[in-house]
Specification:
GIY-YIG domain-containing protein, 147 residues, 4-stranded antiparallel β-sheet, two-stranded antiparallel ribbon, globular, 26% helix
């Protein structure tokens, strides 16, 4: 579905259950930036429920290129979601509410020494592809994620 992600060679994935420590199972790097896809495993079915990104762009003066901070690992573990609570705290609660057995998180480094693809741009592109296929965005994303 997301052919755009095939070119990225620095990538990985991990499983997360609501009783796990997200800090322990997350294998994404702290010092690189990119996007991540979150799949819910529930009653034998798999569903893409969230498309996220790391990397907040910081811009210097007109003569300098923008700088990115907020690595993949930091965003996955401590990034805010739902009621503005860190993922390590709100994901397990939401998983229990929705009876989700596990999350399968796939991460891709899009901004490093090899590629300079801005994570925010890639996330919007992925959301557009998803919406074009399903007519909506993944259920853990918000309308504001498209901007």
């Amino acid at each position: 579905m997301f052919d755009e992600l095939e070119k990225y060679t620095f990538k990985g994935n991990f499983f997360y259950r609501p009783t796990d420590s997200l800090e322990e199972v997350c294998n994404a790097p702290s010092s690189y930036y990119g996007v991540f896809l979150v799949y819910a495993l529930r009653k034998g079915k798999v569903e893409l429920i969230y498309i996220g990104k790391s990397g907040v762009e910081l811009f210097g003066n007109a003569n300098t290129e923008g700088h990115i901070c907020d690595g993949l690992r930091d965003n996955l573990v401590d990034g805010l979601h739902f009621d503005e609570t860190s993922r390590k705290n709100c994901w397990p609660v939401q998983m229990f509410i929705e009876d989700i057995e596990a999350l399968h998180v796939h991460w891709y480094v899009t901004y490093d020494g090899q590629y300079k693809d801005r994570p925010g741009y890639i996330k919007i592109k992925l959301l557009q592809v998803y919406q074009g296929i399903f007519g909506k965005i993944p259920r853990w994303n918000f309308g504001s994620d498209r901007t």
